[in-house]
Amino acid sequence: MAYTFIGPAQAQVSCSKVDSEISQCGSYLTGRATSPSAECCNGVKSIHQAVAGSAQGRKETCDCIRRTMSTYSDLRDEAARALPGRCGIKAGILISRDVNCSR
Fold first, then answer.
1. How far apart are alpha carbons 49 and 44 in whole angstroms?
2. What is the pLDDT of residues 36-64, one digit of tens each?
3. In this structure, are residues 85 and 41 in contact, taking their beta carbons and an 8 Å threshold?
4. Most confident region among 5-9, 18-22, 48-52 by mean pLDDT
5. Cβ contact 80:31 at 8 Å
6. What angle do CA 70, 73, 75 make, to 5 degrees?
7. Which has the closest alpha carbon to 11: 62, 60, 51, 65?
8. Short-list 46, 31, 22, 37, CA closest to 78
9. Which residues contact 71 (CB under 8 A, 6 or more apart)?
């Protein structure tokens, strides 16, 4: 058996993974659902866990999230900003089309 260890400094989430995970939240983000689905929250948690402890990973993922959010013409900004908290994530990931990813 071979094991691969990826430490926090190497944490990385591809934009295609972000797109895939966030797409499960479309109904909530556009107001067609009043709360995020379990699949949506699982995806958001997956993204959050993948970049925990990696400042560079968080920045790159933030850029991907911002780009993904800008593809929703009917995005409810307040729903996007509330999504992590609605999924039980206290801090570390911001979901918005206007978030400043350089901070």
1. 9
2. 999 999 999 998 888 877 788 888 888 99
3. no
4. 18-22
5. no
6. 75
7. 51
8. 31
9. none
| Three-state secondary structure readout of 16-61 | HHHHHHHHCCHHHHCCCCCCCCHHHHHHHHHHHHHHCCCHHHHHHH
Q: What is the DSSP letter of 8?
A: G
pTM of the model: 0.80
Q: Which tokens is 98 given?
A: 């206007």
Structure-block tokens of residue 75: 């995005």
Tokens read off for 18: 């972000």
User: How wide is the angle at C-alpha 7 spanned by C-alphas 1 and 24, nearest 5°?
Assistant: 90
Which tokens hold the place of 50? 């993948």
